[in-house]
């Protein structure tokens, strides 16, 4: 199934000669639907393997326990999607899916499904992608998805935002929204959180 998903993704990625936008949207929707199925099957197979062998497969890092591994499968799947679908050529396709999800028309109604498209769009830096990140972060409630989002946002901060730059400030501002939620802090503390994030980002960049 993973191989088929990769084939589908690469066909869509290289479909710039196809002008039928509705067809591309349908293919992307099919990829997402099958990706969500793949996540569930992968988790089931890992649980079954662990039940038989009392350990994870050899290709999984030894420091991963079963609970952590299962929790992070959607995050790693998103990274794989990005590797095969992160191209501005699909900007209209992915943005249409994000807008559809925001209207409550997603395939599964899950925040994981929304996460896949929002951060794919951010990975290839579609138009106004920080706006879509901010909207997603404000609405997300699933703890695991908040963790995935935080990791992705910190990655953007270090790879796209020089210290003191506008980009860095945009990402840190979105992270501050997320930190308020994940740590159940009062909204009035957001300025303090943002200052702490600036210091943290500056310290890590100096260390790097």
Any overview of this molecule?
The protein is mainly alpha-helical and 208 residues long. It folds into 2 domains: 1-127, no CATH class; 143-208, no CATH class. Helix content is 74%, strand content 0%. The protein is built from 9 helices and no strands. The chain has helices spanning 2-13, 21-53, 66-85, 91-102, 111-123, 129-139, 143-160, 166-182, 190-207. α3 (66-85) crosses α5 (111-123). The radius of gyration is 18 Å and the shape is globular. The protein starts with a helix and ends with a helix. The mean pLDDT is 92.
Topology:
Layout: H1 2-13, H2 21-53, H3 66-85, H4 91-102, H5 111-123, H6 129-139, H7 143-160, H8 166-182, H9 190-207
Helix pairs in contact: 1-2, 2-3, 2-4, 3-5, 4-5, 5-6, 6-8, 7-8, 8-9
What percentage of residues falls in helices of 4 or more residues?
Answer: over 70%
Helix and strand content put the structural class at mainly alpha
Q: Work out the helix count.
A: 9
What is the distance, rounded to the nearest whole angstrom, between the alpha carbons of the first and last residues? 39 Å
Total number of domains:
2
Question: What shape does the CA trace take?
Answer: globular
Radius of gyration: 18 Å
Short description:
The chain has 208 residues and is mainly alpha-helical. Helices cover 74% and strands 0% of the residues. The protein contains nine helices and no strands.
